[in-house]
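User: We ran a pulldown and think these components assemble together. Before we commit to crystallization trials, I'd like a predicted model of the whole complex to look at. Sequences follow.
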Amino acid sequence: MGRTLAAAIGLASIAAATVASAEPPAGAASCSGCHPASTRVTSSVPRLVGRDQAAIVKAMQDFRSGQRAATVMDRIAKGFTDEEVQAIAAWYATQK
Amino acid sequence: MKASRRDFLRLGVAASTALLPLPALAQGAAPRVVVVGGGFAGASCARALRQADARIAVTLVEANATFTACPFSNAVIGGLRELSAQQFTYERVAADGVVVARAMATAVDARSVTLADGAHLPYDRLVLGPGIDIRWDALPGYDEAAAAQMPHAWRAGEQTLLLRRQLEAMDDGGLVVISAPANPFRCPPGPYERASLIAHYLKTKKPKSKLMILDAKDAFSKQRLFQAAWAELYPGLLEWVPLSKGGAVTSVDAATRTLITDFGRHQAKVANVIPPQKAGRIADVAGVADGTGWCPIDPVTFESKLQPRIHVIGDAAIAGAMPKSAFAANSQAKTCAAAVARLLTGATPSAPKLINTCYSLVAPDYGISVAGVYQPSASGQLAEVPGAGGVSPTGAPRATRAAEALLAEAWFRTITDETFG
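Assistant: Here's a predicted model for the assembly, 517 residues in total across the polymer chains.
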């Protein structure tokens, strides 16, 4: 709850609609093509659902800068702004 | 008959626009969305609509009880996988509250979809995931009877098994020919992954054989990666003939399995003709396909530019820079569902961002990928976000290729679970 509020205040323009409708912010819905939404799936790709917001943001920053080794996430992370990453991470952190 | 139906459709559209109906939810009724086509696009969208707003009554119209997935079907052709691993049913989709109507949709007007048994399904919004149809009129000599001799295997199922059986029955030393079409078509790297996995089969089981790709193009998806891998894995076995070297197939003779180009004739022991394609039949029925055979859409809502309140997603859509892939179809389906849910409440859909990731296998333990991030451009198309996306690095170690092969399989498990599981 506090995390959602913080994100909404920090990113009013993007997060306002998101929080109001619990609708995934731009880009978030695509992630589950590779990051399993379900615990049924066996995959080395981590689930994002319920993951710590700061951890997702840090991973995306490190993929984008090349500090973290990647296969495809380096290429994908470069397509998102800091604000978009914050909104996506905030949304996933609140999902169950 | 066709003209009169079209005329009726236009009248219906004009009338609905004139009346400016209130959003369904604003009128207090449960909004009705009909989704036609139970592939990665349609089935994903039906589920996502229920998740977006459980008040929406969603009906998924699909003629087949079983869906057979195209991604990884090249591994079936190459003898690495069984077709059953490609097949999925709709029980779990139905368990999400989607009404699954197992029927062929035969007609579409501005208010309802008609099924083969004459039933009408009224809709507030219609989503079409038509997939592709083969253009049987596009390549002289290649009709449905010819496909029994020279399979396309571009819609997975019996055709996939036919091509595999032909390869298994071929004597060592035979010539296999794949004909690849001009753009656009389903799964841009698909012909080259298929060539790779057939080459793997030949190298393993029938090493005196040759494989030739006759291509209607001079460039293709992940080209440098494929060609580097072919030189490493299949030297002397696999030959790619581009358009400029006479690769374009202009006609075929099914009786002799001969592919004819402007430069010569190639008689194959096994011929895989990947023919020109268009949006699936229902797109034409609904009047959402243009002169190209594909469907122009709005990049925010995926609403047809030709018919209001009808949305088109997946391979059938003209989605700008987004390729015709299962990942793209699933990504578009979720974006479209969010937009439709908003439109039904009278709200304005927000600008989306979409991702595509496509893996190809060059060998069972050798995977390569292409990824992209997309957003609506000022010109009203889905355009790549500059500076993002691209293909796997050239010259990467084999450990990277092995990792991507495993990621490819994990992707298949994940996306089929989200869509059907």
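Residues 1-20 of chain B have pLDDT under 50 and may be disordered. That may be worth checking against your pulldown data before setting up trials.

User: Thanks, that helps.
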